[in-house]
Amino acid sequence: MANTKIKCLNPIASIGLDMLGAEYDIIENVEEADGILVRSASMLDMELPKSLKAVARAGAGVNNIPLEKCAENGIVVFNTPGANANGVKELVIAGMLMASRDIAGGINWVRDNADDENIAKSSEKAKKAFAGCEIKGKKLGIIGLGAIGVLVANAASALGMEVYGCDPFLSINNALNLSRLVHIVKDREEIFANCDYITVHVPLLDDTKGMINKDTIDLMKDGVVILNFARDILVNEDDLAVALESGKVAKYVTDFANPKSVTMKNTIITPHLGASTAESEDNCAIMAVEEIKDFIENGNIRNSVNYPPCDAGVCTTAGRVTICHRNIPNLISSISGVFSAVGVNIDHMFDKSRGDYAYSIIDISSPSTPDMLSKLEAIEGVLKVRIIK
Known about the structure:
Elements: E1 4-8, H1 14-17, E2 24-27, E3 35-38, E4 54-57, H2 67-72, E5 76-78, H3 85-100, H4 103-112, H5 119-126, E6 139-143, H6 147-158, E7 162-166, H7 172-177, E8 183-184, H8 188-194, E9 197-200, H9 214-219, E10 224-228, H10 237-246, E11 249-254, E12 267-269, H11 278-298, E13 319-326, H12 331-341, E14 346-354, E15 357-364, H13 370-377, E16 382-387
Parallel strand pairs: 1-2, 1-3, 3-4, 4-5, 6-7, 6-9, 7-8, 9-10, 10-11, 11-12
Antiparallel strand pairs: 13-15, 13-16, 14-15
Helix pairs in contact: 3-6
């Protein structure tokens, strides 16, 4: 059996690639790829090879991958939620501290006065210009309690902040990991109205795009600090610029430099450093490789962004077939009919749907055959069939 061919569109940490083993080849020619590992490289205009079965993004955001196009071609796209969460959390906490105390201003003053022979004495006079406040006892509002939001909440609580969180889609797992000291509120308007610091950790959706705008800023306290380490277009930067100029918003801390943000007053902007740690890159690489290996070898789907989760474990029957298909009526009956027509029993069948698409793992009593494959591929609505065993 030929080795599985993997193309890396970006450098992927060796700790992850080393997990692939002898059954996998890292290739240069993307046209031959069975799987793609990617970080930030854009795939939006890429011609997707017919051989391609999976794309694993070593990171959380997938705006550089054509998700619908991949789904239409039966290509499962994975991401690595939570793998870089601690790195982002630490930068958020650092950003909050820098916004509350003019640390950067003080550092720059020292550098600018390095030739002053009396700098120790001079700094005692100068330091009052960089004075700030402590974050202990202040109210922090967190919009979005996913992997990053939960870590930020727990860390801020441990630092003595009064933490409020809002997430209508809070998962059971994240709720269990949340400190009991964190106050859960029903809607984000409560956070806008009551918190001294507000940090957003939500995906880009119709409901969240531009969620920080004139109307929501008007609800906030005077002198509020806003932190955004999620997506720059969650913020209406024209409205925010006005609020920063007036002092309604004291500081805006973000990890997204763009032509608008870098010209705004009272900002602290880092060049997308959230996941730029050796540990985050290693964690993302490991998770991405684990996902793509489990999919290639067992047909299981974990952390896909365009197909549903579906995990049948390791195959213990004579054969296993997986099918990416449209989520339409009677298709499962047509699939079952193929196995019945060739006299093969279905031992286990797992079928999950997600919007317009669905995924099936079928364990059968006989080894899969090319004839079976061609019959399944001929069914209207079937997008890609794979013989696992």
